[in-house]
Specification:
- With 497 residues, this protein is of the alpha+beta class.
- It has two domains: 334 residues, Alpha-Beta Complex (Cathepsin B, Chain A); 118 residues, Jelly Rolls, CATH 2.60.120.
- Strand 15 and strand 16 form a beta hairpin.
- Helix 4 crosses helix 5.
- It starts with 14 loop residues before the first strand and ends with a strand.
Length: 497
């Protein structure tokens, strides 16, 4: 017997009218469940009759397919920005990396992909939207970074960020990308996927891909507000269906009103349920019944992952908070499908960068991959360098004084000790720091109160792994009036590796 939504066993489902139609402007609710521009989602997409069908005509598929749920990353939220295709593509990418298996918890940067799709792949530079084809081209040709290198910003730029971002149309690209990547993102490793391709959106083709390739499918589609039970709908919507993530095939009135203000949305299909039956609704939100008074049901739904976060849409979906059921007929008629493949990942440990490059929990020489690396097998050597500047420290002057030890020896810093000899009548006035290359570590920062002098050995961290050669600069400043002193001497003791 086919499964039926709980609503069949209850009186008429609870309905609520929307707080305002599309012409009333956005509400706080809509800010958290945004849709995207229509045109970018469909640009370059072929019709189904131009695409081969991937599934065989005589193929027999199971009534329910949920195998791919185990290889999905967590549900994310696109916040108030209309970048659903970016989130759907990154969700696909994380799924494909989970299938590959080298990264235990892949988490890639939607923020970076939005920038790359517009600046590197040259797609839709003067609008917020995009599509899976352009997104996958950016990932394939240029790669994107991990989320930590450029975390997602849930609000798009406004005039408070840049005067040019005034909310109009055809704004500078920076307004849609929230500026340029930070240097950390530019320098970070770029992760890639194989080139993607369009897929026929008929049920047989999508089922054939899901079961044959065992990978998910990105779908971009026309957005029908009542079908999605979205509060921007001018028609009544169903809270039970929203909480279950139920998206029906749109009725005629929903089509008429939604197409008058056309928008789009993108999701990731991860499975299906052929037996699920859901009562259909008319434009008033009432259950449609046949001549015998029985509910007319829709049957055949894709299981999909959305990008509206958790705790609301799909909160009661049995496949997970933030997932939903999407009409197969809806996707076939109003959707485009795009796919990629599992990447080939070659991870190796770089033995002197302080990073777990191969994501196995061990760093540099602690990683077994570095067991025979010269930097890890070399016999440690202790090198000592001394300076005796005997220079007065300016009173109450944050600029202070510096003393430099120029090291010409080759090697890599393992551990470090710094001994300072400072004559001064009030330790609490002093700030002492050591600079090497582009790294600075603070050794003493105005502690010690009224104690005299600073004759101390420090063991700072943060400089290990750097090249030994170069200038080592001690910076000493007096940051309060009256008490004075002298930088007499200082010494470096470095264990190289």
């Amino acid at each position: 017997m086919a499964r039926t939504l709980l609503a069949l066993l209850l009186p008429l489902p609870m309905l609520f009218a929307c707080a305002g139609g599309p012409d009333d402007g956005p509400s706080p609710y809509d800010d958290d469940y945004p849709v995207s521009g229509y045109d970018p989602l469909f640009q370059g997409a072929p019709n189904n009759d131009e695409l081969p069908e991937e599934g065989k005509a005589d193929a027999v598929y199971p009534a329910k397919f949920t195998d791919l749920l185990a290889t999905q990353s967590s549900v994310k939220s696109q916040g108030s920005r209309g970048v659903c295709s970016i989130f759907a593509t990154v969700a696909l990418m994380e799924h494909l990396y989970l299938k590959e298996g080298s990264l235990p918890d892949p988490d890639f940067s939607e923020q970076y992909l939005q920038w790359s799709a517009k600046n590197e792949a040259r797609g839709f530079p003067n609008t917020e939207g995009s599509n899976a084809q352009v997104n996958l081209r950016a990932i394939s040709d240029f790669g994107i970074v991990a989320e930590t290198a450029w975390p997602y910003e849930r609000y798009k730029w406004s005039t408070s960020n840049d005067p040019a971002c005034d909310g109009g149309e055809n704004l500078p690209t920076k307004c849609y990308t929230n500026g340029e990547p930070p240097q950390a993102a530019r320098d970070a490793r770029k992760w890639q996927l194989p080139r993607g391709k369009w897929l026929n959106s008929k049920p047989r083709s999508i089922k054939g891909h899901l079961t044959g390739n065992k990978t998910a499918v990105v779908v971009g589609m026309t957005f029908f507000y009542q079908a999605w039970n979205h509060r921007a709908s001018a028609l009544p919507v169903n809270t039970e269906y929203w909480r279950r993530g139920i998206v029906l095939y749109p009725n005629a009135k929903d089509k008429e009103l939604s197409l008058a203000k056309r928008a789009g949305h993108a999701i990731v299909i991860v499975g299906w349920d052929d037996d699920l039956e859901v009562p259909t609704l008319d434009e008033t939100g009432a259950v449609i019944k046949d001549a015998d008074g029985n509910p007319v049901v829709e049957k055949g739904f894709w299981i999909f992952k959305n990008s509206w976060g958790t705790g609301s849409f799909g909160v009661d979906n049995p496949n997970g908070d933030g997932y939903g059921y999407l009409s197969m007929k809806y996707v076939e008629e109003y959707g485009t499908a795009y796919v990629s493949d599992v990447p080939t990942v070659a991870l190796h440990e770089t033995c002197d960068d302080g990073v777990d490059d191969d994501h196995d929990g061990a760093i540099d020489c602690d990683d077994s991959d570095c067991a025979t690396a010269a930097i890890c097998t070399a016999t440690p050597e202790i090198r000592t360098y001394t300076a005796t500047p005997a220079v007065a420290i300016p009173d109450n002057d944050p600029a202070g004084v510096t003393s430099t030890i120029a090291v010409t020896d080759a090697g890599t810093v393992g551990s470090l000790k710094v001994t300072v000899g400072i004559t001064h009548s009030y330790q609490g006035d002093l700030r002492v720091a050591l600079r090497h290359g582009d790294q600075t570590v603070v050794l003493h920062d105005r502690t010690g109160g009224s104690a005299d002098d600073l004759q101390t050995t420090f063991a700072p961290t943060g400089l290990d792994g750097q090249a030994l050669a170069g200038d080592w600069v001690l910076e000493v400043s007096d940051n309060a009036a009256v008490d004075t002193g002298t930088l007499d001497s200082w010494q470096l003791e470095i264990v190289t590796r």
